[in-house]
Amino acid sequence: MLETLKDRYSRTGEESTVRSLLDRESVRSAPFWGPPFLLVALFVYGAVVWNGVLSLTDFTGIGSPDYGTLDFENYVVAFTGGTPTWSDLTVDPIWNSAQNTVVLMIVFAAVCLALGLVLAILVDRGIRFENTFRTIYLLPMSLSFVVTAKFWLYMYNPQTGLINIGIQALGFGPVEFVQNPELKLGAVAFALIWQFSGYAMIVYLAALRGIPSSHFEAARVDGASTVRMYRRVIVPQLRTATVSALVVITVFALKAFDFLFSMYGGYQPGPSADILATRMVREAYANQNWAYGSTIAVVLFVMALFIIAPYIYSQYRRGEL
Amino acid sequence: MSDAFAGGSDRRDRLKRVALYAVLVAMAGFYLIPIETGLMTAITSPETYTGQTPFLPPLEPLVSGTGSFSLAPWANAFDGLARGLANSFILVVPATVLSGLLGSMAAYGLTNVEWRGQIAVYVLFIAGIFIPYQAVLVPLTQFWYNVVPLQAAFGPLAAAVPLVQEYHWKLVALIVTHTAYGIPICTLLFRAHYKKLSDEMIEAARLDGASVSTIYRRIVLPLSVPMFAVVFIYQFTQIWNDLLFALTIVQFGDASVVTQELVGIGVSQSGTNFPLRMAAALLAALPTLVVYVLFGDKFAKGVTA
Description:
The complex is a heterodimer of chains A (321) and B (305).
Chain A: H1 2-10, H2 13-23, H3 25-28, H4 30-54, H5 73-80, H6 95-123, H7 130-138, H8 145-156, H9 162-169, H10 184-210, H11 213-221, H12 226-234, H13 239-254, H14 257-263, H15 276-286, H16 290-317
Helix pairs in contact in A: 4-16, 6-10, 6-13, 8-10, 8-14, 10-13, 11-12, 13-16, 15-16
Chain B: H1 2-42, H2 72-109, H3 118-129, H4 137-147, H5 150-160, H6 168-194, H7 199-207, H8 212-223, H9 225-241, H10 244-250, H11 258-263, E1 267-268, E2 271-272, H12 274-304
Antiparallel strand pairs in B: 1-2
């Protein structure tokens, strides 16, 4: 104590400001969070900003982008279609793929959560071989989108696919799934649900385990039926789990590009399964409409923000950051 | 009377139990059957493959129509994917280790310190998890191809150092990119872990005069080993399975990774070679499947903790 006091008195003027600045926790911990932060700032946020600027140019891959003349033409084209100055061709607006993106995201997320919840409740009923069942349900999640696409391309095949063999065994004709405009998006959603519903199950299972067993018992003593008990007592307590599973699953849906690229062997899934993620990469990397691709990327980014911002805000409000 | 009642409810309980297991097993079937079908097809010789019973093992000549057993599809798949598999391993190991290590450092620097600004920095890390790759692809391609002279640097390097090839510059670009995009999720996972570490222990070390970096090396790092397992599993799977970054940064050529090679395999003018394609899909999935079967439990605990 005495020493610290003496220390403090011996520091004077400039020296003490420098010392106290160096002593600050923020500065002393900077060597730890600084380098990773620089990488993220440069590659994630720097790139997002650069992409925003690129979306205002007319860059079509020749030479370097011209940052001298910036305008919102690409956004007008994205929302209304037409022939932009940088192309001789008519460019379709993004509404179709935006709609597909939203439909895919909602169907995929809703079914994943529902199936995950049901599975979690079943697994939570004191079963044997719980670890085995859990590992099996989670197994598809370890696969690459590319691999999943190959498996389901095979499952859906009109001649040799297992699903059509089943349908034909029931006496119906073979059904075309993958190239059928009416079933395409559903077929894609189904395969993605197969891959990720196990994740929702794991998240719900952990949440169920966190609910004190007295809640289950109290409801049972009251004579509530099992279904009622889950609906009235247990499910309302799963809000946090639902939000965290939903956020992760939505992010998986935004990444569905890999799946569609592999399923359709390239950038052309066709209009009824085209999502913003494929449209963006196709415009930039196949059609060389780089600036227009950047524009669609900005739209996707804004859509992602609508999911991220409320999530982070709610985490912050609950003091979980 | 009461006995009969008890017997009835007993039987009902048993029936419920049977129904429960029936549903659980049926769901296990649902999750396994695409993989099982793929495996059975992959061990069928392409010449005898008929596609009538893709889910049955190839039992010819015992059961006709099922095709005969062969490992040729696997050998061919390995030939087709060898380059991609090698490149994927070159990519995935450093990228996984780097993103895990940097994520742990970031989480430490933003957790056990008394500094109010950490929340703002942390929010930027967390938001980074959810940003779709599409939002950065065009700048990334521009950056690696037109801004950084990585390609030019690798020419002389390849000539001087054995085993280094000029095309490796694309893998280096991919490693840096995957590291940067992996840091946010790693930071999140580590921070959840570090918040639970005992404050007293760290406070005591601090009072003993241990520096920030000593505390990290001597106390925090040894206690992070279980979390490193989770993070490494997650990052390994994510990076191994990624297609989009490879497609836009590697594009094509010698540096192609396994997911890129897999997209086009098994298709030719004469139609689809399903045994080859399924063998290739399973071969590409093998590393992550093995990791999941061995460490899946640890992973499940880590993500939900």
